[in-house]
User: What shape does this take?
Amino acid sequence: MAFSRQRFRALIRKEFIQLLRDWRTLLSILLIPIVEMFLLAYAVNLTIDHIPMVVADLSQDDQSRALIHALVISGYFDVLQYVDSETEVIHAIDQGQARAGLVIPPGFATGVARGDAQALMMLDGSDSFTLQSGYGAALAIAQARSTELAMEKVSRSGITALGELPIFTSLRILYNPNMDGMVFMVPATAAMLLQVMTMGMTAMSVVREQEMGTLEQLLVTPARPMELILGKLVPNILVAAVDMVMVVLFGVYWFGVPFQGNPWLLGILSLLFIISGLGQGLLASSIAHTQREAGQMIAVLMMLANLLTGFIYPRTAAPLWVQLIGDLIPLTYFLRIIRGIFTKGIGVYFIWQDIAVLLLYSVVVMVLAAKSFKTRLD
Amino acid sequence: MNEIAIRTRDLVKIFKTRRGAINAVNGVTLQVQRGQTYGLIGPDGAGKTTTTRVILGLLRRTGGESSVLGYDSMKDTYAIRERVGYIAQQFALPGDLTVMENMRFFADIHQVDEETQRHRIPELLEFAGLSRFTKRLAGKLSGGMKKKLALACSLIHGPDVVMLDEPTLGVDPVSRREFWDLLGELRTEKGLTIFVCTPYMDEAERCNLIGLMYEGQLVAHDSPEKIKRLVPGQLLEFTPSHFAPAKERLAELEGVLEIQTYGRMIHVFVDHAARRQAEIIRALGDQGITCEGMREIEPRMEEAFISLIRKQQERARAASETAAARSPS
Assistant: This one.
C-alpha cells in the first residue's frame, strides 16, 4: 500500500479549505441541530395537557361541578366553553375548537347517590397524542372520583374497617422523575443528528465532486483510493464530533438534562457510530449519481430512522418485521447506548451487545464502502 | 528509452446501459512517438473522450491493448498517473480553491517536494500568465484562464506526456491561440508529448499527427498533409447567386466529385480545376446563376474531414444494405 502522508495531508487541507470557504453550509451544519433541539423542546411536546374541552352540564349540581373541577384541576383539561346540549359539544369538536367534550346528563347527583351516575366523555380521535393523553387522564380522574365517592359512602354507613383501600400503589419513575420530555429527546436528537449528518455530509460531498468532474481530475492523479476516502472522512468526523459536543452541552446546560454517565465512554462510542454513518454515506455515494439522488436517499433513511429506531415511537410496540428493518439502521443501537449512558448512567456491561453490533456494523460498512469506491469512472 | 509514448491496438470500449450495449470505441489502433503532438479529431460523440479515458485507465478496457510510455493502462495505472498530465474536458479543478491553492494541492498530490515546488510553481504561473491572479478563486477565472490553470496544474509534476480533452472548448479565439502557443512552447522547449482531442480543424492542423475518429473508429491516422491529400481532386470555391439550384445543377456536371457548403459559399471538388472552372461557370450561367469569386483553393483539414466522414458513412450504408439484401427476411 503506497500511502503517502504528503498526499493525505493535501487532501485533508483541501477539504478543510472548501469547508471553511463554504460558510453557509458550515453554518447550517452547526446551527440546524441546535435549532432542531429548540423546536423539539418548545414546540413539540409529547405529553399533551390543557386539552381544550367543551362541557354540557345538564345537571348543574354539586356532583357534576365536582367532576368538572376534578378534570380541570388535573391540568389535563381546560374548559373552553359551557354549552347546552350534546349536539353543540360534538359541533365544537367538529369545528376543531375543542379536542374533548363532556356531557353530564340531568340528575347527575341523584345518580351518584343511587350509584349509577353516568357522564359522557368525548375525545377527538383524529389526533392520536391527544387521544392517548386525554383517554388516560379522563379514565384515571373518573376512577379516582368514583373511589373517593365510594369511600365517602362506606364511611358514612359506619363501617370503619374499610377506611383504607386494600392496595395502595406507589409509583416511582426512574431516571426521569419529572417525566420531562427533554430527558427523552436530547440524547435522541444528538444521536439522530449524527446519523443524518455523517451520512449526508459524506454522500453529498463525494457525489458533488463526481458531478463537478473534480473526482475525474483526482482519480487521474496518483492519489490512492484509501487516501481519497480518508481525506473525505477525517474532516467530516471532526465536524460531526463538534456538532455532537455542541448538542450535548446545550442539552445539559441550557435544557438542564442531567448527564449521568461517563462522557468519555459516550465519546468513544459516538466515534464508532460516526464511522458507521460515514461508511453508509460512502456507500450511498457509490450508488447515487447526482446530489438529488443522494438527497432522496438521505430523506428515506431519515424517515425510516424517525419511525423505526425508537427515536420517538417505542420499538416494542411494532410488529417483528418492522423491528427487523429498524435493526438494519445503526441508530437503533446507538439510541439505546446514548440513552443508557446519558440518562441512566450505565456502563459497558449493560450495553455491550449494542456496542458489539455497532462495531461489526462499522467494520462491514467500511469494508463495503472501500470496495465499492470507484477508482475508475465506469 | 521507450520511443513510443502512447500506443493502442484494437482498442474496444463497450458501455453497457439499460438500453443495450454501446460500442463507444470500436477497434482503435494508434501510435504516438515521443515528442509528437497528436490530435484526435472528430465530431461530438465520436469516442474521443472515451478513448482518452481508457488510455489513462479512467475507464475499464473492454478489449484490445493500450499503454502509455510502455505502461499498460489497466495494470500500471499509477505508473502512468505519475508520468502523465491530464486536463478533463469539463473544468474539473476545485473551483473554491484559489489559483495558488490549486497549484499547491496538485503539487502535493503528485508528491512534488517543497524545494521543487518553490521554484516550479512561480515558473508555471508565469508561463500560464497567471502570476497576478494567485489569490483568485479558480471558479472565478475566465474560461481561457481556467484552461491555463488546468494546464499549469497538469504540468506541476514534470510529466512526459500531457493528454488534453478538448482543452479549448468554450474558450474565446484569442485565448485559444494563446493556449496553443503555450502548447507549442512545451513541445519545442521541453520535448513534451502532447495528445489532444479537439473538434476544431484549425487546431488539428497544428499537430504532427492526426487521428480522425468517427463512430468509434479511426477513419484516418496520418500527418495533416497526408490526410488532406486523401481527398481526391482539386477544390474550387465560389459564391453562387442562387444557392439551391446551383447545388442541384453542380451535382449533374461531369468531373464533379463532391460538393460541400461553407456558409453562403460552395466548395466543390473536381477532377481538374482549370478545366472544370470554365465549365461550371458556363453551366450555371445558362440557368442565370452567377458565380462570384470563383477560385481554386488548397483543401483544408475541414474539407478533408467532411469528405472522409461522408465516405465512411457511404461505406457503412452500403455494408448495411448488402447485409439486409443477404438476410433471408
User: Anything to note?
Assistant: Chain A has a mean pLDDT of 85. Residues 51-156 of chain A form a domain with the abc type-2 transporter like fold fold (CATH 3.40.1710.10). The longest strand of chain A covers residues 51-57.
